[in-house]
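Sequence, structure tokens reproduced for absentees:
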Amino acid sequence: MKKHIRGVAEVQRSAAGRRRPGVIMTSRLLFYRTRIIPALALFCIVTLAISSAGCTATAADPIRIGVLLPADGPVALHSLEGLAWAADAMNRQGGRTIELVCRDTSTGNISAYAEELAGRNDIAIVIGPAMSAEFIDIAPLVTGRGKLLISPSVTMELATEELNDNGLLWRTSLADGRQVETIFLRLRGDGVRNVSLVTGATPYGETFARLAPEAAVKNGIRITGAASFSASDDLPEIARQIVKEEPDIVVAAVYPEEAVGLVNVFSPDRLFFSDACRSSYLIEHLGERAEGIRGTSLAPDPSTGYAIAYEEIFGEAPPAFAAQTYDAFLLALYTAARQEAAPGESLAASIRWVVTGDGTVKGWDPEEAGEAMALLRAGAHPAVTGASGPLRFGEHSSRGPLAGYYSIWAIEGGAFSEGNPVPSAAIDPYIPDLSFAGSAGDRPVVWMIYPLEKGDRSFADSAYRGLFRAQESFSFTKREFTYADLALLDAVFSLQNFTEEPDLVITEGFEFTGAARAWAAANPDIRFVTLEQEDYGLPNACDVVMVPYGASYLAGVLAANITRTGHIGAIAGAPVAVIEPFVRGFTGGAAAYDPTVNVTVLYVGESFEGFGMPERAGDLARDLRADGVDVILMAAGASGTGVVDAARETGDIFLIGVDTDQSYVAPNLVVASVVKGIDTIVYHAVANEIAGRFAPGQEVWTLENGGTGLVLSSRFAEHTWVDTGWRDRAIAAEKEYLKAVA
């Protein structure tokens, strides 16, 4: 079978050809990318001056949504740029135009803004505000006029009767009770036994002070003392009193400005902050003194891929409450769509209908959100999932959703690193329904089948990155599945029982070797691109092989150079064919640099399950460290998160990631990553399908042709000599390896 070897130049052309929003100007909004204009003051005032003279909305009228959020200042934690992108992306799906009418609450009187937006006949739903005190103040102004108010970031435990809850007050962030439980559970796991509590003199801080004692007792932690303070208080004196209490950790539920004051009187490693402090304000105002600060914050649902999409658009991880802001936007759109189907229904009843859906499962992204709106307009009842998790609520909507995700963050190397998101309650990963009949129209249909759900920070996430990039560039309908759908997919492909037949199917991972061959053979009119499987030799199959031997060889050279003990290791998911070049290349590179270096390789499991066992991987990492290993290659998929957690415990293990650049998970510990161009390959596959350039055969991607490589983390840039000095030897060794396994 002919082999198609694609070089770096072609890959670069493909990447350069995708549409990435820079400045998008429409009649509806101005959309600024983070890299171009960091401030959002202009965005929040550049809205249409639309007459609000009593008009009744029709299907031709825009959906106008009021927004009351800060664009600047220490509590500007939301992604207003993400909100603008969401509106623009939804408008590209067709249907009624969406307009955001934004008021920057950092520059004016929020009560006046609330009265203005609530008084407009063309605005029925308002997103905001950011802070609990503001929520309490403006809620009557908005709901008193029969309008819907959805806050993306108010977390304070609210007694609904205090706000005269009438079904019009909603929020997409978890209540603080969940966060307090998460904080003390994590501290217990860290061996903390004594805690002092510092809270701001705000409703937010008062809530923490009230909830903390019960959570502490539940986790066997003693609160040695508690202090509440405002900006005018004598903070050094408060600190002296706290020090006398001899706490292991000071838990602080404060806003960023107050946090800066605390860092000035406490060592950063003695502080653990709540979600309000997950803000660049700390880094900007503290500089190097911010190093080591930890805290918790709400996180996107990792299985949805929202964080990956956000990073693709804006070049950075989503800030705090970005996912919750997006979900507030979704609830507003879905409520408006339901109102079209049931025009006599109250807003309160419409949004309650939306969050109790039990039909077709639809996710957060613009394509699926557009389909959800179409279903709602038709009177259907889809089950909707947001970027932050399931959009499910209890009886009192103002108390927030029933479940979501938290992550433990830390400031390392002047940037935020994020721990693996953990659910606040039992949550099933988002798995979409097989099809949405009739939605594709004339657009090509692409099925993407992952080995695991998104959120592995490795193989699946990289593939989704390429798929999302393609969505931003081309018009097609995408469907996503995982290995968990194997039985269903087997039945559909074997019986050709399609309600929406795919044009292109991409399968990722050795797990699908047998299944993908059978599917392709039984469906000759469907094109298949397979990743990390084998050369099927079928006229409708393009089989992609990525060989990381050469890049892993460079990683071995690097590890042998930086080890202090002369003992390095690798933790791999399982002893399977796709892992072999990682291990052999790493071992070969280390031996070439220093034959005296000892290499230990451990496997998490014997088969596929080994790539989804982070606790087991963490135990193996601790065993390696006990044996003197101080550099570890992580080739274990989702299990790698356990290795990172173990490395953080000691702080003296250097890590090398695989598949994607994993430096963001621990900037001070991840030295480099052995990367595969999975995202580029997926993007390339979709682009070829759209352009009619599908080519069967086998593609081989290596270090030499740019399909794999070693990416150094920014804090370890001094090691560029590894690539410049050893690249030719790595390529030569890789060629010998390929000859041997041919």
User: Anything to note?
Assistant: DSSP finds 22 helices and 30 strands in the chain.
